[in-house]
Fold these 3 entries.
Entry 1:
Amino acid sequence: MSALEKTSSSATTERVKASLTKRYAAEKRFKFYGIFAISASIAFLFILLASIVSKGLPAFTQTYVKLDVSLTADALGIPENATRDELRKANFSGVIKSSMRERFPDVKKRKEKKELYGLISTGAQYDLFDLLIENPAVIGTDVSMWFMADDELSAVIKSKADLTNPDSLVTRLSDNQIAWAKDMQDAGEFDVRFNSTFFENGDSREPELAGIRAALMGSAFTLLITFALSFPIAVAAAIYLEEFAPQNRWTDIVEVNINNLAAVPSIVFGLLGLAVFINFFHLPRSAPVVGGIVLSLMTLPTIIISSRAALKAVPPSIREAARGLGASPLQVVTHHVLPLAMPGILTGTIIGLAQALGETAPLLMIGMVAFIVDIPASVTDAATVLPVQVFLWADSPERAFMEKTSAAIMVLLVFLILMNAIAVLLRKRFERRW
Amino acid sequence: MSTTTLFLLTIGLGLASFVYGRSRAYAIAKGNGGVKTLHSLPSHYGMMVALWCALPALAVIIGWKLLEPSLISNMLDTAIPQTVLDGGEKAVELYKNDIGNIVDSDKLSAVTDAEKKIAAERLTNLRSTSSLALFVLALVVAIIGAVIALKKIHPQTRARHKVERIVNFFLVSCASLAILTTVGIVFSVLFESARFFQQVGFLDFIFGTKWSPQTAIRADQVGASGSFGAVPLFLGTLLISFIAMLVAVPFGLMSAIYLAEYASRRVRNIAKPLLEILAGIPTVVYGFFAALTVAPALRRLGESIGLSVSSESALAAGAVMGIMIIPFVSSLSDDVITAVPQAMRDGSFGLGATKSETVRKVVIPAALPGIVGGVLLAVSRAIGETMIVVMAAGLAANMTANPLEAVTTVTVQIVTLLTGDQEFDSAKTLAAFALGLMLFVVTLCLNVIALHVVRKYREQYE
């Protein structure tokens, strides 16, 4: 080795050494970018969830107001031994209003009276009706009952705000109303309870009466149709493509098609549903059956792809052994391959259904955006689904609907988490590694 | 008799004939010296009978149900008063809808109009006759099918082959449904778009710069002439997708690099499912978050530094959409990065490169085609994403590149044009299909290119 080469090599070493600090700094920076990216993404997730939960939690409670009402037949405007129909026409709101007037005898002006009545939900009269139907004996007696408060009042009471200082409240309640509320609060006439109405009612224009029952049933019916259609079809398609399909042009086209369909925007499926099922086949608008068909077309590629993966994971030795014992190709599949692949297929199906449960856009196209008060009883009734209900409520101007929206999202997320948990459990419990 | 009941009845008949056919096969085998003398298993014979019984009957039911509405509607014509018939097709259609509603809601007794009453009674009659006829026909077909198949049970009958041929046909048609769906999508948007382009020129649509789809109800109305220049929508879509990509690509890519190259097994096992939760949240939730949390926050932030931010700014929608796409980009990139052979990294380390240098100079260039494919797929998702923009972006068709202003997108317009009750033939509704066609074509091209690139890339290292 000559002296010249030695010096040049040590010069390189020097240069490398000199650059090392810089390079290590760059290394550290790069690693930091990675950590930052991933923690920021996870932070986004938590911010999103925290914002939804903090907005939605109040919706699960509802303020009730205690009122003494005198249910004389006279005040109700009903005859003795009234029938159900006669009861229906009774003057419940008049009774409630007069009991409010008795509670605050100083209120005289028309405008003030109107403000006073506004503290109680318009749903109170239905509660009274239900009471009378259940127990007709109370007619003619004085009863003390808890009625639902109006949404604005309810929000103020739930937030445990200081009613003595009206200026600090962010509310549409008038100063008069706040003063009355303060009076009632001091007398212990408010009670905050679990909001069961939210799970029992359909949609309503009044926030305190609006519930998710109709949307939940709509979602259930839609998912039922989606499952009934997409599961058998997807499994059949996957079996064909994985086990029987010859390697030819047609199979290629089918495969490319399925992969492409998986990436087609969901709204395009909505256009398909509108043009084909509603305008061509004249299926009913807004019905879960159409929603289910459209969603199953949408989820088919997802389920087919995961079912194929599950079928592929079954080792060929199983098939060969069955063939060797004289099973026909179809028997090989139905008796051996399919049962072994079933956990994987079910996992894929549940994930596909979870996707369908959260889908909104295609359902808007086929008219499932209706204002649904009645709880749908079959797959052809007009219905809406949970995500669409979220969309509808998110548009409402009332502040109380914002917490309803968040609460509905929480319910939706709970269902999604449940479904995904089941899928994970299935995979963990039954998946076999060969 | 409702269709569901009939359907279930047919299935029930099929099951019964399966059991009966199987026992017939056993009985025949017993007389001939045991099951082994049969060509197929007894259950195959049972299946054969069941399929012969149920399939034709189900076909009859489905065909009947498809044809029934138009047939009944035609037969109803005789009960419609002449004055309505003279009013043209639309009036007749309305009248028939009216009658249908009366019958559906069971309000026949409340109808005062004598003519309507007659028509409604006729409709009720027609419907009950039709369902009775269908019931009888389906039953007869099912029984005939079962009897024919039962007669065919001989030891020589190749029942397994017959059954398997039918099952195979079922499998093929299920697989081909994907093609049918694509064809359905193409035709439904293509036909309606063709009708739209008869009313509005194709070039006006593609290159027009003014979008205001309110067509006039009366011809002489002022300021209500619809104009369908879609350029503002395309630009709005591009702007929002671009913002989304600005968020999603760096975050997604860096997350993927960290997870694939740096993270310990434990971190990976926690972080990856958390990222996937982000992908599983419904888009309507992101839309709500964008519209009610992010947009007001951005607005306040803008005000505090003296910028005017629209409450429906492109920035809010785009940023939230970007967050939604992060897991998409990261999981696709993660796949391609882990597919780069370890030998390439080892070579780089052997030459003295640090980890980050290896990633930047070796791994990423090697994985680039796959990453590009993944990003293209993400772009196609951003373009087709609907709920976030419907809830958080505006309706005003502004042509602007300023992310703080409101823009509108193709998907937002499709939703606005098609929700609510419009006439199906108006240019306004048809425009939605033309936009849908654009959306489908663009996303399809992106997908095809992306899938091709990804596939080519995978082959390279397999």
Entry 2:
Amino acid sequence: MTVSRRQFLKSAVAGSTVVATACIATDADARGNMEMPEGALGLLFDSTLCVGCKACVTACKTANGKPLATPPELPYLDKTRTLSPDALNVIKIFKDGKATAKDRAEDGFAFMKHSCMHCVDPACVSACPVNAMKKQPDTGVVTYDKDACIGCRYCVFACPYDIPRFDYGSAAPEIHKCQLCDHLWKDGGFSACADVCPTGATLFGPVIKLKAEVARRKALKAGEATKFPRRHVEGQEFTKEQPMGEYIDHVYGEKEQGGAQMLMMSGVPFDKLGMPDLPEQSYASVSETIQHSLYQWLLGPAVALGGLMAVTYRTVRSEDENDED
Amino acid sequence: MSEHAPLGGKLVTPVTIFLAALAAIAGVFLLIRFVFGIGAVANINDGYTWGIWVVYDVVIGTGLACGGYAMAILVYILNKGQYHPLVRPALLASVFGYSLGGFAVIVDLGRWWNFWHILSPGYSHLDSVMVEVAICIALYIAVLWIELSPAFLERLGLKDAKRKLGRVLFVFIALGILLPSMHQSSLGSLLIIIGNQLDARWQTVLLPLLFLLSAISLGFSVVIFEATAASEGFRRPRETHILSGLSVALIAVLGLYLGIRFVDLAMRGELGSVFAADFLSVMFWIEISLFVLPIVLLLPSARRVNPRMLFISAVSMMLASALYRVDAFLVAYNPGDEFSYFPAIPEMFITVGMIAFEVLAYILLVRRFPILQGTHGQPRAAMSRPLPAE
């Protein structure tokens, strides 16, 4: 196969097109993690305070118009174990061996809340092709709009916490996830799970205040007597004085994926409680950096198209000349 | 251009009747899906929310439909005019592969009536990888029909229209190379955001590049597969002498893919994990073996003119790229222990029915429209057209 000068030139044009595209790509700014809005609202879940009463599961369902799954003989106990279109918040139990002591990894047990983390840099929002999943700029709450949604379920696929749920059994399905009970705010209400929690295990409020409460708890020693705020971090309700639990040195949601507006404290390592081990750099930022590098202002594709057109024009023309011969 | 000719022959045969029956069964299940919801026919769930409709029909289906793309690169960019006879049949397969991929998306979308949102500036979220995929695939389907339209204009005797189209066709050919490069790589990019839910042996920022190369190798393998199958099925002269030349391109693409795959694993410090004694390592090595086999088979140039060797290589390459995509989207994806997925029977029938429809339409069109290389006249001269003069 001999390579003519003209062929070589054409290949060179095509080759340099690719190189030029790649150069533009590396010039584009890498996108770092998003920042938390100043007025961010969220939840603090403290596994050492949770007694597994599941009042939050029932309250969440009532507040969001979902049917309860309570057996007639135990009307206070909702047996829902996994998230579904009818359950936006569940309490899971961790058990090890004989399960004799609470908040202990070996031969112990602990309770864990599973609901939307309201990520600072959410994968579902980055993934959503139609802005149906949105991070509200003021409160940082991750909301869902069914009227925009096309039902592609990329959010379900992308979420590292396995939160969004879809109605597979409906001809007009929707995505279901915790929206921090934002529909209750206008009447002065707040997240039903925190509102109902008798022990202060789930606490609602501005994330800044929740972080201060986390710092206060970390500064206390295990066994030291203290009162825990209940329901709303800015409210004036407290538990009775009680001894502090023992925490592991990891506040989940502080760093994971660039942070979350739900923070979690526990006496048992979070991987045992079913939480994924996630890097600080958000997957959304990695994905968007690649997309922006390749497609910012469509500069790369435009240059590539120009180069391709130059080459195809010459090939087609030389073919036509050949046909006429 | 009289080099293409309708194949002629009967349209109603046992084969076409069988294909039509499969398509009809799928039609019934589709009706059930649209009336009662996706769950009535499919096993997808909140762990494995993308099943075979996405992974086979779209991710692999559009990959298999990359024949037109791969041939366009070869003929119009690398200027290998001698492959021209393969372009039209490849384009036809591409047009069906993509159109049905597009249809499969509608079937899979829960709120399909909102589909237009993804292309509408009022809704579209440009940071989403899926928007890039959707816009590019939609545009490419249009471009494919335009690229193929000379065949229809020729048949309808619209010479003037064909000549006018011919003048601007280079724009569409260029788009026909650009758009698949964009969305085939983006199919890989779709997976970056799932992070460590995808096993480290597959998760890499080079996913777009690896998906692009797998699309090109799917494209070439499909061209060889289809040309061989068409020669046998329609009892036409073999195109081995054309196809054998493709194997050089094929070896280059496969070699590049394998090189990048292993260098990437090494750079990420994951080289050791491919030797782990687990199921995913086995899948990994099956994938790699299928990629290596065609190289081994076709490296000695004497074997490249052997139609059986070419066919085996094409099948191996097709399976390799398809398995790579299935592994990346389903097998190596771990949404947690509580979930499992295997497609339901009706779910599979919908996919099979759509493929049957695709094959049926291909047969009907090549029998009635000038798609395949004509066998009367001077076929050999037309097949081995000289390269453009200096």
Entry 3:
Amino acid sequence: MQTPAYQLSGIKKYYNRRQVADIQELTLSAGSITGFVGPNGCGKSTLLNMLAFVDSPSEGTILYKGQKAHPFSEAVRFRVSLLPQEPCLLKRSVFENIAYGLKLRGFNKSQYLKKVNDALMLVGLSPDNFSNRLWYQLSGGEVHRVALAARLVLKPEVLILDEPTAGVDVVSAQQIMDSALMASKEWGTTLVIAGHDWKWLHEICDNVIQMLNGKIIGKSLENILYGPWNQVSTGLYEKILNDGQRILVQGDSPLTSFAAIIPQRFINISANPPVQKPDEHLLKGVLVSLSLEPAANAVMLSVRIGGQKFTLQIPLEKAKENNIFPGQIIYITYPISSVVWY
Amino acid sequence: MNFLIDALFQSFRLLISGNQETYSAIFATLKVSTYSMVVSLIIGIPLGFILGHHDFLLKKQIRTLVDTLMSLPTVLVGLLVYSLLTHRGPLGQYGLLFSLEGIAIGQAILALPIVIALTAASVESIDDKLRVTFISLGANPRQILLSTLWETRYSILSACMNAYGRVLTEVGISIIVGGNIKWHTRTITTAITLETNKGEFVMGVALGLVLLVIAGLVNYSLSFLRKR
């Protein structure tokens, strides 16, 4: 069995005594594509920085290919590369920016000239037009592409992309996605991607991990319902939606600001009003989008209920049987005791 | 107005005619300012990097002290260096009083806080994203230090220009430590003081314009480097 790329155990990270990450166990296979999704501030970037060995955990261990690793250790220095959410170029030409990592690895100009040009073409930029441009002569999307080229030219074993397409024009975003996938396919690069584009992530990733409050909450796209919650009776809480419907959940005296998750496996959907069980709650919404998840042979549904979006995965066959389509009225039911508080 | 026009022509005449006394002062000025700048940059840039990049005990207090020392009065530095270099002073045995080297020591003390403070400020202003970039591309701590200095080169260049401007135009240290000795330690600023005392205002302003030309040439050279 191949040694996993990463094995994390007991990872905790604190900033000024505030816990920002708490990952009990996490294993990422070598050559896999893993996506991390979650709201802003949920700890994705913190985790990615630790996976990239840019930052160290306050507690716990990270094994890279079975070896304990930390920032600057030889086991990872030339093997793992991070593309931050807002990449920063050096105050040099595009060529020099891309060649920087190669120079650190001891390549001379005759060796890296072709590599740099190839990397530029990989991200869809013409070497003739871009090599000599200075860092301030690039658009936002071009900065992202040059920064990605500076990583791709190193052919890293692990490429970590933190929201690679955020704030980037459509053409650049597509090019970034294609280039990253090429690295995975052609070189067997392990890809770790954080983002909000869950449709794309579900389409390309072997695993999509959802995070909330610094913790991993599941490997499927869970529906996070943020507070405030109103107490209806002992152990019963409600959240009023825009259209007057209410989400009812059961719990043990949570803080009203807590986030609740109704695990997908407990949610049933139907195109017709279902027969409601005594402990179940019924909500009515509109199906707003459908997307295919080829890896899981499933369809991802987005149902909007009074301003709250529910995302559900159903088998492809079931979607065909029910003949569902966007714009359709959809009913969802869930046991009110199925909630998990965060 | 005529007075200033006369001074302008006089300054060109001084430069073009190769007036030996003027050129002696120019060379003395360039020599001491070069010595002092080399010393202050060699000591000041690493100290500025440490102050800007690292966190340590009393950092804030040291930073405040360095910032305050940027406003050091030149006569105070002159007096301090004089007391160190005088025959009765701790460094009197080296015979540096009334020498260009003595003036350079004083000017280096004057420039050092400027170089340290402005280097620290430019290193502090560097985004943490740059550090992440260096690590992501495989740099080790030594390479990060050198690359960070290279990335702040324009700001450090500005720090040099500031410090050079202060050194070039100071008069307190040159006159107290150098003694304004003709053909020896007379710099342009001390020559201006002398000419003004003699009532030779046109000559004084002309020398001032010469100083301005030198400062302009230095700044132009640094700006040229910046464009590269």
